[in-house]
Design a protein that fits this description.
Structural class: mainly alpha
Number of helices: 6
Oligomer: single chain
Order of helices and strands: HHHHHH
Shape: flat
């Protein structure tokens, strides 16, 4: 009922928050992406091992977007530096989660 109300009034972020509480991670993350909240989406994708690849793809796409060849370091704002710092931390989290998963897969196959 809450979700229907939020959908009717185009309150996607609030809807994503409720989906997140209900552990419907993929739906929540996709809504975050639609609303331009890529970091929230990546953090949400990480919560489900079936979605780790999607988390990794989103993180890499965001890195490509932020590190385009047209941006010179002197042009970066404090906000951009902070965002890049947060993004690198997220990429590290994604990498750690995926690497741990891949290690355990290799160990199970031995």
């Amino acid at each position: 009922e809450k979700l229907e109300f939020l959908e009717d009034y185009d309150l996607n972020v609030a809807r994503a928050d409720i989906l997140l509480e209900a552990r419907r991670y993929e739906e929540a993350a996709e809504l975050y992406l639609e609303e331009g909240r890529t970091f929230n989406a990546i953090r949400t994708f990480i919560k489900d091992e079936e979605l780790w690849r999607r988390a990794k793809d989103c993180a890499m796409n965001e890195l490509r977007r932020c590190l385009s060849f047209g941006i010179r370091p002197a042009e970066e704002s404090d906000e951009m530096r902070e965002m890049m710092s947060d993004l690198f931390k997220l990429v590290g989290q994604v990498n750690n989660v995926v690497a741990e998963h891949e290690r355990s897969e290799v160990c199970r196959s031995l």
